[in-house]
Structure formats: structure tokens, C-alpha cells
Amino acid sequence: MRVRIALAAAALLAAAVAPLAHAEGVDALSVDGRGTVAADSTVTLSGTYLCIDDSAGPVFVSSTLVQGDRSAGIGGTQAICDGRVHPWVNTSVVKDPAYRAGTARVEATLMQLTTGETGLPTPGFLATRASDVELHES
């Protein structure tokens, strides 16, 4: 019984220290707990991602920032799907409504575009993450 508890505690610790160190074949996404907003209303968000295979179509990290009743898409980064952890940084100028320093929420998505039956790109969602962030003036 003690061995199981120790193994479970070690697994939880490893998960907290390296959130993207997942088993092979699993796509993952994280959001940094700190973002920035500049005087010109430029918002920058970041995190890390891991994706395994982009042979079916390009993969992107998209992010949406929510603060109060405001919500806006903040950029998009094309992902490199090689089974390694990579950083992502998305930046956009959002003037109406402008964001302010303080608490906000980020909804990030690791999305793959594939060609559907109609020949049009169809999004497939590989991983999602919603996280509280603190926006700081930059």
C-alpha cells in the first residue's frame, strides 16, 4: 500500500513539474500564467505545446483572451509537430475594447486543418487549455 501511495505522489509531482511530459502519441498544450498588455493595446500571451503528427494538415496554436465581458482572438502560431515541447507566443493589437492589467482568462487551442469532403479546410482539435492569467503592463 505504501509503495502505491509513494508512486502516486511521485507521479503527481512529475505532472506538476513537467506538465507536457506526456506519453508518446499525446498532443498537449499549456498557457503561461502571465501575459502582457502594452500602452498601444498590444496583448501578448504565451505557453508551450507538444504535437506528434502534422501529416494530415498544418497545426496552429490559437488563443482567446477573456476579461470581464470582453473576448478577442489573440494571434495564432503555426506549430512544429515533432514530438517535442515548443514555446508559443501569440500577439495582437486589441483596441476596442482595450484590455487592462489584471486578471483574465485564456482559452488556447491546438488545432489541425485538414481537407474535408468538400475540399474546404476543416478544423480538428488536438488539445485545449483554459487558464487564468495575470496581465501586466509592458
Q: Assign the CATH architecture.
A: Sandwich
Low-confidence stretches: 1-23
SSE arrangement, N to C = HEEEEEEEE
Distance between the termini: 51 Å
Description:
With 138 residues, the chain is mainly beta. The chain has one domain: Sandwich (Immunoglobulin-like). The protein is 12% helix and 54% strand. The chain has 1 helix and 8 strands; from the N terminus they run αββββββββ. Strands 1, 2, 3, 4, 5, 6, 7 and 8 form an 8-stranded mixed sheet that branches. It is globular, with a radius of gyration of 17 Å.
Can you tag this structure with a few keywords?
single chain; 138 residues; mainly beta; Immunoglobulin-like; eight-stranded mixed beta sheet; 1 helix; 12% helix; globular
Care to give the gist of this entry?
The protein is mainly beta.
Write the layout of secondary structure elements.
Blueprint: H1 2-17, E1 28-31, E2 34-37, E3 42-50, E4 59-67, E5 70-78, E6 85-93, E7 102-115, E8 121-137
